[in-house]
Amino acid sequence: MYPYHGNHKPSAVESAMKEIIDYIGNEGLCDGERLPNERELSELLHVSRSTLREALQRLSSRNVLEIRRGVGTFVSYKHGVADDPLGFTLIRDKKRLARDLLEFRILIEPRAAALAAQNANETDIAELAYLCDSVDDLIRSGNPHLERDQEFHTCIARCSGNIIMPKLLPIIHGSIGVFIAETGGQLREETMRTHRAILNAIRAHDGTAAYDAMYLHLIYNRDRFRSDPILLGGEYLTK
Amino acid sequence: MYPYHGNHKPSAVESAMKEIIDYIGNEGLCDGERLPNERELSELLHVSRSTLREALQRLSSRNVLEIRRGVGTFVSYKHGVADDPLGFTLIRDKKRLARDLLEFRILIEPRAAALAAQNANETDIAELAYLCDSVDDLIRSGNPHLERDQEFHTCIARCSGNIIMPKLLPIIHGSIGVFIAETGGQLREETMRTHRAILNAIRAHDGTAAYDAMYLHLIYNRDRFRSDPILLGGEYLTK
DNA sequence: TTCCCTTTTGTGGTCAGACCACTATCTCTG
DNA sequence: CAGAGATAGTGGTCTGACCACAAAAGGGAA
Question: Which domains does chain A carry?
Answer without folding.
Answer: 12-75 (1.10.10.10), 88-223 (1.20.120.530)
